[in-house]
Amino acid sequence: MAKPKNMPPAWAPNAKPTAKGWADPKTGEILVSQRGLLTEADPVPAPEPAPEPVVLTEEPAAPAPVVEEEPAIEPAPKPKRRRTTKKKVAAKPAETE
User: Fold this and answer.
1) Are 60 and 75 in contact (CB under 8 A)?
2) Quick check: is 65 in a domain?
3) Are 21 and 31 in contact (CB under 8 A)?
């Protein structure tokens, strides 16, 4: 007997249906990929309300004065020396008399 489409997996009964499949409510991780769980006829969960803005009671401090410094001109770096390979010299044959 097939399990109804709208039932969460047996090993995760607290899973929530999403458009991509069954998701963990704490982490949002997709546990079972399944299309068509939420259709346009299904109610979409309302987003959580935004937190209330923080109201500052103190006046902000005056900004520090901007001091423009002239950029330091650095000399151009020296070009790197190319590594050269050592010339291979054939060994002289040993002289035997």
Assistant:
1) no
2) no
3) yes
Kindly report the pTM of this predicted structure: 0.37
Strand, coil or helix: 94: coil
Residue 66 has pLDDT above 70, yes or no: yes
Q: Is residue 77 part of a domain?
A: no
Whether 57 shows a pLDDT value over 60: the answer reads yes
Q: Tell me if 23 is assigned to some domain.
A: yes
Q: Which domain holds residue 33?
A: 18-43
Three-class SS of residue 16?
strand
Banded pLDDT at 42 (limits 50, 70, 90): low
**DSSP-H helix ranges across 1-97:** none
- 89: in domain: no
Question: CA 70, CA 57: separation in Å to the nearest integer?
Answer: 39
